[in-house]
Amino acid sequence: MSNSASDSAALQAQIAELQAQLAHAQRQAELFENLVKRLPIGIDLLQREDPNDPTSLRLIFTNGLMPNAPIDMRLHVGKLIKDIFPDVPPMVFDRYQHALDSGEMVHLNELTVKVPDIGVRIAQLSAIPLTNDILCIKVADITEQKQVLEAQRHMMEQQAIINSQQEALADISTPLIPITDSVVIMPLIGAVDTRRAQQMMETLLHGISHMTARFAILDITGVPIVDTQVAHVLIQAAQSVRLLGGQVILTGIRPEVAQTLVGLGVNLNDLIVRGNLQSGVAYATLERYH
Fold first, then answer.
1. Residue 129: pLDDT above 70?
2. pLDDT by residue (tens digit) across 258-277?
3. What does the alpha-carbon distance between residue 272 and residue 246 come to, in Å, rounded to a whole number?
4. Which of 79, 85, 245, 255 has the fewest other C-beta atoms within 10 Å?
5. Phi, psi of 68 (to 5 degrees)
């Protein structure tokens, strides 16, 4: 084979290789374009023509999916951004310039626009540098995300109000009333559940410790049902108060309550029991002088 024939075969092989590479590149480009067009976010590619001029950004590609865009960006490919949006403040171009110079993604402002037939939408803009002079502007619709966050914030505020009201109600439902410097009264009204029992115990012990009271009168006249749980709370309160140097006087035990306590086998030896509040106050008042 002559040299010319050999050179021709080598050239044809190189051409075939280049054509194969070109075909592969074209397929890759088509895949990329289809992917970008189907992304649920807006993608704009900007090319900086003058590194010293932040406003020299030209739109070279868009997938046309910019949420809230007042114009169709696909009609403006090839134009400078400053010509497409004459009112863009210089600060925005400065942030674009910073993203390109630093190579770091920059989160931009949020856009709120009323879209016809859709309503108000909110978009988050981010600038992502791809090369030293190519900038990708990502526009993501965050309307639903903002709505979820707002709903969560509202729920937290409502829960805080509910918690505050519950705490206020607990304070009202378990008041500790000083009648002398050594005697306090806690009238219990309504059902005593686990949460209220804990609140009662905290209020009682804090009051005994803070006021250095000698007697705490627990009046259960207003408690409709006294079961094992309530009895256990009363005994626990008496034992805790005794550790602080005080005594619990239990008043307001109705006949049916007395029968219930006897039937449950409850031992009330740790408590001083009086029939009503008046007799309990009288006992505490007299005993404080002894």
1. yes
2. 887 788 777 777 788 888 89
3. 11
4. 255
5. 70, 5
